[in-house]
Amino acid sequence: MSVHIAILRRPYLDAVLAGDKTVESRLTRTATPPWGQIQSGDRIFLKQSGGPFRAVAQAGHVESQDELTPATVDRLRRRFAARVGGDDAYWAGKRDARYACFIELCDIAAIPNIGPAYKPQYLRAWYVLPDAADPIRDVALTAGAIRNRYVSIKGSTRPLREAAVRLEMPDGEIIVTELVKSGQLRWRGWARYFDAYGVEPGHRVRLLAMGGRRYRVSFPDAP
Question: Model pTM?
Answer without folding.
Answer: 0.91
